[in-house]
Write a structure and sequence with these properties.
Radius of gyration: 21 Å
Strand order of the largest sheet: 3-2-1-4-5-6-11
Bound molecules: NADP nicotinamide-adenine-dinucleotide phosphate
Order of helices and strands: HEHEEEHEHEEHEEEHEEHEHHHHHE
Largest sheet: 7 strands, parallel
Shape: globular
Number of helices: 12
Length: about 375
């Protein structure tokens, strides 16, 4: 796709976003096909949808969490070349949780648009070209240097998602496409361990290295709030593009750490809860401690990332998105984490290892009197 076409497609998406919502036409008893369904978001969507009387079908390869929700119909196939199982069936709507390159989305949308009249694509706020300032749904999306690439890495993920959005939109048209752009998805079942790191770390007790300043802003979305928004958008046939995350200014990393400590105190360690030690961003940088990967959820609001936690949620909120209290998200995440196998609990995929955290705290103490905040 040429740059010009891409901008046109983005413009169409923006126009679609301005379509009036139809909050009263909620349908029950829908047949919903989920492309994917078994990792993190899919099971939460399915549970919410089933509770509202809908019937679900999962389409996937049968590799990821094959045992989850055994009562849900499975169609086995592969988005990379084997969609045969989807032929000759009818659904009321499709939820695409597993599209990462436009070829996959185009192929499933073309196959399904005559037999399933609504397409909801799960994209990401990573589509935006820049986080130097605030973003909303009309902000420019990123482009690719090599437009034919299918390499889904941290650089290409967002621009490829933007092309996936355009592919869905090109086949289904503005009135039949919903694009959902979540921020960091968090909560029970998260396979990435990013938000989970904080309550899990708090549960270990002791001095806890906390990043930057407690007031540093963050944005997340509880997976259950996202699932509810998506299923209601299907029920109401709500077309358009929506950032789905906590609104700017609602949450800070101090809130995340405070709630994590509170959850650990309540659920694990009432006598000696962890003590946060706040370490400034500049010192973390000097110790090669990376925002986001070593200190998950947190990105300092400076330079090219000054607007990282300034993505508007206003459109989704006015379309009915609800955000549950962080206390609930954090406690439920810790409850779930405590049920995981020991190996998973010991080998979190995100956040500083205990050894690196201990070295960081020791280095900080020799450098400056740390600011302790018992929140
Ligand atoms: N995690 C975040 O913070 C975050 C933030 C923003 C956006 N998102 C987006 O959220 C979406 C939800 O992800 P999720 O993984 O939780 O969704 P999910 O629907 O729970 O699970 C993903 C599903 O895709 C299936 N799948 C993977 N490759 C496939 C293929 N080639 N053909 C058919 N099925 C395939 C997997 O099963 P098999 O492996 O068995 O095939 C699995 O069932 C993603 O689109 C992601 O980009 C995530």
């Amino acid at each position: 796709m040429q740059r010009r076409d891409f901008l046109l497609a983005s413009f169409d998406l923006a126009a679609a976003s301005a379509l009036p919502l139809s909050p009263v036409r909620a349908e029950r008893g829908l047949r919903i096909l989920v492309l994917g369904g078994t990792r993190f978001l899919g099971p939460h969507m399915a549970e919410f949808a089933i509770a509202r009387g809908h019937t679900l079908t999962f389409f996937n390869r049968g590799k990821t969490n094959a045992d989850v929700l055994p009562g849900v119909e499975r169609i086995q196939g592969d988005r990379n070349g084997d969609l045969k199982g989807l032929e000759g069936r009818r659904w009321d709507a499709v939820i695409d949780n597993s599209g990462y390159v436009p070829r996959q989305v185009r192929a499933s949308a073309e196959l399904l648009h005559a037999s399933a009249p609504h397409y909801l694509f799960v994209s990401s706020v990573s589509v935006y070209a820049s986080f130097a300032g605030p973003s909303d749904e009309d902000s420019p999306v990123g482009g690719l240097a090599d437009k034919s690439t299918e390499k889904v890495d941290s650089e290409n993920y967002g621009p490829l998602k933007a092309l996936c959005e355009s592919a869905a939109h090109a086949v289904y048209g503005a009135e039949h496409t919903t694009i959902v752009r979540p921020g960091l998805i968090v909560g029970p079942g998260d396979n990435t361990d990013r938000f989970t790191f904080w309550p899990a770390r708090a549960a270990r007790g002791g001095e806890l290295a906390a990043p930057g300043a407690p007031s540093d802003p963050v944005q997340v979305i509880d997976v259950r709030d996202l699932a509810e928004f998506a299923i209601k958008a299907i029920e109401q046939r709500t077309a358009g593009t929506f950032n789905v995350l906590s609104p700017p200014g609602r949450l800070s990393i101090g809130d995340v750490v405070r709630e994590s400590v509170a959850a650990a105190k309540r659920l694990v360690n009432p006598q000696s809860p962890p003590v946060p030690v706040w370490i400034p961003a500049a010192f973390l940088a000097s110790q090669k401690v990376e925002p986001w990967s070593d200190m998950p959820v947190w990105v300092p609001a400076i330079g090219d990332e000054a607007g990282f936690a300034q993505t508007s949620a206003a459109r989704a909120l006015s379309a009915g998105l609800t955000i549950r209290p962080l206390t609930e998200t954090t406690a439920d995440t810790l409850r779930w984490h405590l049920t995981r196998p020991q190996a998973e609990r010991n080998g979190l995929k995100a956040g500083l290892s205990p050894e690196r955290e201990a070295a960081l705290l020791a280095a900080w103490k020799t450098t400056a009197a740390p600011m302790r905040v018992d929140r």
